[in-house]
Amino acid sequence: MITSLIMAGGKGERFWPKSRTNLPKQFLNISGNKSMIQQAVARLERLMDIQQIFVVTNELYAELISAQIPHLPSHNIIIEPIGRNTAPCIALSSIYIQEKYPDSTIIVLPSDHIIKDEIEFIEILRTATEVAKQGENIVTLGISPTYPETGYGYIESTDQVATINQMEVHRVRCFIEKPDQVTAENYLEAGNYYWNSGMFIWKASTIMNCFAKHMPDLYENLSTMKLALNSPERELVIKNEFMKMPDQSIDYGIMEKAENIFVIPCMLGWDDVGSWTALDRIDERDENGNVIRGNILNMDTRRCIIESNNGKLIATLGIEDLIVVDTDDVTLICSKDKAQEVKQLLKELRMQKREQYL
Q: N or C: which terminal CB in the chain sees fewer CB atoms within 10 Å?
């Protein structure tokens, strides 16, 4: 049995002011006529029934998920008691999935990525599940880099390569944090480094064994949760144990320590839409390199991203390399080289207690 877990609890803060606390990035139509989470579910339905697809999120977004994916069973929406990191999120979700499908192989993926080549994506997932089923194997999808990106983590592969279903499957040497520019250029030239897509495939039993070995305190919390699954105090116990779990990523908690990790290199037309500059990669640009969305008049404007979300005219003259985004209550004007730092504006808004703009 193959199941999947879509992580949909993020706030998409670097996509502010379009992505907001009450309607974050994964629920927006960034590319195409469906929201990103709707696209993620539709892709997986090429491979499995909706009954086998689970979404983990926080309480704030449960109704949004039900509204956007009305055919998703309500009991397949897993609610995190509080926001933690990906290790607790995946751990909690795994015991829910195991409860319903004890021997399943789980595909874990984010809700807010763009994948243009969906047919190839599904074929890669088929191969990844085969590899994951062969033992205590963890499989990840590594995106073959096309430029020296400093905003992504990387995966280094060894020279141990197998061919399965005409796809190369490499053994992973290590996971690497976001590099500086020179290092990213070296990775691109070396040819055995891949962008970390944040997509993982493993048997439910494999990830549980990894938690037991590499995060024993968290595994103890999980064990207490599992004992309470058929108890009247189920929700209270899960909440209390979840609060004790560390705020730790799955990369740091498991992937940097586990053995038997394999990576399948792929292209897929993938983008994590991490910030506004992603639109340079996923949208068409005009003859001056601009991405234009909405009611825009531009003259002598080059390499800009300009979006109007309320019908108001945005007129630009003589600007370069800027991001301009207008919503009903906020206008963002930002240089492209600061796109990764948009979250700092939100931090300042919180300090000034201007939460209505978040």
A: N
